[in-house]
Amino acid sequence: MKNNQSTKSQQKLSFFFKLLNWYSDQLFIARIMAIISVLNFGVVIFDLTYIPLRDIWLNGKVTVGKIKIASHEFNGITFKILPQSLREKIIKYDAIKGIEPYRDTQEYLEEVKRLEKSINQSGLDSEETAKILYNLREMSASMISEDPFRIANKSGTLEIIKNRMREHMSIYIDNPRDSSTVAFTSFWTKNHLKNNNLERQLTFFNKQIKPLIRTNFFRPMGENGQFVDYFGLIDFPFIVIIFYDFILRCLFISIRYEGVKIQDAILWRWYDLIFFLPTFRWLRIIPIIIRLDEAKLLDSKRIKKQLSKGFVAQIAGDITQVVILRIVNQVQKTIEKGEIEKILFKEEDRREYINLNNVNETAEIIKILMNLVAYEMLPEIRPEVEILLTYIFEKTITESPIYQNINYLPLLKNFPQDISNKLATQSYQIFLNTINNMLKEDLIFEQHLEQIINKSVKIMSLRPNAKYDINKIEELLVILLEEVKVNYIQQLSEEDIEALMKN
Length: 503
Known about the structure:
Low-confidence stretches: none
Oligomer: single chain
Structural class: mainly alpha
Number of helices: 22
Distance between the termini: 70 Å
Helix content: over 70%
Strand content: under 5%
Largest sheet: 2 strands, antiparallel
Number of strands: 6
Mean pLDDT: 76
Strand order of the largest sheet: 1-4
Number of domains: 3
């Protein structure tokens, strides 16, 4: 009986593992989850931008090019981008953000509606209209002094309202202090409306002032000290789906790879944890890009390549600068310690020079340079050198006193040019042969070369002013290296970085 139960349990586990393996390997499931993640991010972006863009959703208008420089103001161009039916649907999102109409500004607009109704029914001279105008003057003064826009962080909107009313009333009243309160209270008077085209004045208010007052709102505070926000109700279903997908994939990783525990699998998919952060929701773009790449809906190779190039280029620049600076600094210190002088002027108390390979590097370097000159450079420049030598020989012959005395002879007219060409060709060939013979493997030649080098150093060291000259050279080399650091190494230009990134 127990064996049967154990067998059934194993079969269930085996079926679960197969189902888990199938789920994790299906590309279409990865694509569905990637699309769900993108939709969630779209909702997040809309939520984050809703309040900053609420004025657009409310009025459906965007003004481009409106700027103010000193006393000059450019109104710009206003575009109507959303139909009213769509705006009314979008603005219902106020309920999610806990936004309510601000009581004072809402009552202000309601009072204006009552004024328009009273004028249509009773006219401007009625007592009811007079009472409403009085209320509007009182409410205007209160709005300006108390700033009901402050709670919604829209005090700037109130300043725009005040500026527009001051500018509008400047042609109708004398307002020496440029008071916005005087402008508003003068606007809401029977004489002003009656004497200055009632319909025009109300149109100004409805088009220029009312849309701005409508943008004000009130957001209550929650018990956590933050504004009321019900976005979590929209976000929660997405997070539940993504969470289950995350758990299943972590289980799959821990089962497929031996020795990987569930907590290690969670770290394996660390980027999905960003979905579950209560704040900084915009960071979800990171796991979304990775999921889109895994689902083959986005090729992130180019992005990764550019990011890695920028990183590598910057690090390469920094490392190169540091390494070269250290090398130059070490060379400077070596020169400042007088190592050149110690090499040229052997002192008895100087520590023995350590030869690592029993090879005279100086002689080898000279041989390499001579090989380069003999086999690469000299054959290439031979025509030019021969022309120069011909010119030198010809000039020497024609300017010699002997030739000056016999140059009138016809047979000697072309003598300088002919002999110069032969001398130049033969001289250059002899020089090349000599160099080639010198470069052949010859131990005796190497011994002579080493003797020449050693004797040259000795002769240099025996000169009366040798030490002074060497010290001067060391001093100049130190300054030269410092200039190299300042002018080249420490100023690794942006062009060098860009060149690295293009490769």
